[in-house]
């Protein structure tokens, strides 16, 4: 019989969202007349902007004509999209189109990047706590995490605690991590990183020869001019950082699927014999071997994000969600809750009132207000006592949810 990857057995059962689903279903079955508003999962709700749809329609028609039909595209993406990204998203940051690799999602890229790094514990990995679970689980699968303790913390990982006390910017550890995952604007806390803070990480990475994996999926939600939108705004980051970006949240692509990863030329890792190897070379090889590119139609849709109309329409989409975030943040503040985030990110992170655990607050919100959020403990031990509300919803639902919370708590 085929042997399985034993590391999968160390994964804690996908606990968070299934458990939320179970509790919501049980409540709904017992209370069939109640309508429940879900501010839990971070999926977008608003339709795809017209400029994107028009570009995709035109691309479909091209494929229907023998003269403009296209088959396999370049594995790393069409130049028209990589050039548009370099020109708009990395203006003045010296990122070339050749350093941009188009993919079908940041979640996939965050996991796939482990293909080009040594596994089975050869690299010490640092993650934030609370954390986007993908970083942890993919390292468990790769054999980098070892077993979990009773709090669900993996023995082999370094956890960087993000709390209100440190402004959700965890202290830079003394210990050496070979790979550090950073996500700003942050899911789940809605926090942003200052330029100074990211500069400390770049200095740390240079000191230890570490690789920073910077997840900038929410960069479009940054409103403050002094908050860095890319790790490459920090001097020296090109020598130590890979950046992940996605069209999922700013352009409504969670179902369409398009993202990209920047691997700077000159960024290297070390082979077991000490040879320095360019990571771009390995990523290029990984992608061209295991991936055949994103569909032409989708890449035309993504490129339309950078047209004048696309910029305006996606800007409006972001503004729409950020108005939801403002309503949630201010609505809960008025109820004397301690709220964080929601200013440069579409998530509001709150301290559970009355000393509730995050699951107790989940139950209270569900049964009293019929509103669903996400318990902070589901994102890691340091998320206990916190709760996440997402701004991805209709205005109507956000306003109704706030009224219910106000009436019930
Ligand atoms: C939504 C999200 C992504 C984007 O994932 P896709 O696979 O591109 O949809 C990446 N990172 C974080 C932290 C996210 O919340």
From TrEMBL:
Keywords recorded for this protein, A-Z: Aminotransferase, Pyridoxal phosphate, Transferase
Domain Aminotransferase class I/classII large stretches: 35-405
Reactions mediated catalytically: (2S,6S)-2,6-diaminopimelate + 2-oxoglutarate = (S)-2,3,4,5-tetrahydrodipicolinate + L-glutamate + H2O + H(+)
Gene Ontology molecular-function annotations: L,L-diaminopimelate aminotransferase activity; pyridoxal phosphate binding
SUPFAM superfamilies, per the entry: PLP-dependent transferases
Any Gene Ontology biological process: lysine biosynthetic process via diaminopimelate
Enzyme Commission number(s) from the entry: 2.6.1.83
Cofactor: pyridoxal 5'-phosphate
Superkingdom as given in the UniProt entry: Bacteria
Metabolic or biological pathway: Amino-acid biosynthesis; L-lysine biosynthesis via DAP pathway; LL-2,6-diaminopimelate from (S)-tetrahydrodipicolinate (aminotransferase route): step 1/1
HAMAP family, per database record: DapL_aminotrans_1
Name of the protein this chain belongs to: LL-diaminopimelate aminotransferase
